Amino acid sequence: MNQRKMLMAADVAELLIVSKSKAYSIIKQLNQELEAKGFITIPGRIPEKYLYERMFPNEY
Fold first, then answer.
1. Gap between the Cα atoms of 25 and 30, Å rounded
2. Planar angle of CA 14, 60, 32, nearest 5 degrees
3. Of 3, 18, 26, 37, which sits 20 to 30 A from 12 (CA to CA)?
């Protein structure tokens, strides 16, 4: 049971092939969406499932 639930900026940068600063801005935007829906967020981290849903909607 070594499955991660939250991704950090380095993970997002590697996955999306973007810079680490761009990954932080993507995480910030997605966290704002989650907060608007009433979820609790952690700065600099994003739930893996939500990232995949938003970035790859046809694959998830």
1. 9
2. 65
3. 37
Residue 59 has what pLDDT?
76
pLDDT tens across 8-60, in order? 999 999 999 999 999 999 999 999 999 999 999 999 999 999 999 999 988 76
Alpha helical stretches, state H, 1-58: 9-16, 20-36, 48-55
Q: 22-31, long-range: CB within 8 Å, 24+ apart, which pairs? A: 30/54
Going by C-alpha positions, the residue among 51, 44, 50 that lies closest to residue 10 is 44
How far apart CA 54 and CA 60 sit, in angstroms, is 9
pLDDT above 50: residue 1: no
